[in-house]
Amino acid sequence: MFNNIGVSGLVLILAIALIVFGPSKLPQLGRAFGDTLREFRNSTRNIIEDNERDPLIENEGKKPL
């Protein structure tokens, strides 16, 4: 997704974020973004594990072949 940004693009994005949000808000925003990504990753991992443990839930209501 971010393979084509490059160093100069990343510096530009960080500079704009610094101007828009200020230096006091950037650590809070980074922490909130990291927490959100961690929660999303854990949720998707739990959904995948639940589907692997109980595949009959997906086939509920379908007639067997």
From TrEMBL:
Q: Which UniProt keywords apply?
A: Cell membrane, Membrane, Protein transport, Translocation, Transmembrane, Transmembrane helix, Transport
**Topology of the protein relative to the lipid bilayer:** Single-pass membrane protein
- Chief subcellular location equals membrane
* Compartments where found: Cell membrane; Membrane
Domain of life, per lineage: Bacteria
**Quaternary structure note:** Forms a complex with TatC.
Question: What's the protein called, per UniProt?
Answer: Sec-independent protein translocase protein TatA
User: What is the name of the gene encoding this protein?
Assistant: tatA
